[in-house]
Amino acid sequence: MFSRDSKPLRIDTLIARSVRVNGDVEFAGGLHLDGQVTGGVRADPKAPTSLSVSDSGSIEGSVEVTDLVLHGTVRGDIVARGRVVLGASARVEGNVYYGIIEMTLGAQITGKLVRLEPSESATAT
After folding, report:
1. Domain count for the chain
2. C-alpha angle 75/85/14, rounded to 5°?
């Protein structure tokens, strides 16, 4: 899903379109979000993790993951030590801290883009 030399996006957990979560979500592995989360979404910082948010998905809170594919909405800061991919329908209201970023024409960010150096990637919050 990223590029030819990237591994495919791993999905271990699905939050469906009809699901609304009030509170923080912590996960390991891969999470795909079609629903809504009111709270932070955080992954295990010691292991590679991936979060994909579809165009119907939304998060009102901070996001901390290794890799992020966003087609929906995030209202909060994003820290992705690896790669951030923003699709055309992606909307971010907050700062984006990233290792590598890809943006499709139409993606919107209201906030700062801050590139993390490899040494900062492990300690950014």
Report:
1. 1
2. 70
- What count of residues does the chain have? 125
Question: Do 99 and 81 meet the contact criterion of CB atoms below 8 Å apart?
Answer: yes
Measured CA to CA, the distance from residue 66 to residue 44 in angstroms comes to 9
59 assigned to some structural domain: yes
Q: Which domain holds residue 65?
A: 13-121
> d(Cα 87, Cα 56) in Å, to the nearest integer?
13
pLDDT digits (tens, 9 = 90+) for 58-93: 999 999 999 999 999 999 999 999 999 999 999 999
> Does a structural domain hold residue 1?
no
Question: In whole angstroms, what is the distance from residue 95 CA to residue 48 CA?
Answer: 22
Can you name the residues that pair with 91 across neighbouring β-strands? Answer: 73, 108
DSSP element (H, E) containing 118? helix 118-121
> Is residue 93 a part of any domain in this protein?
yes
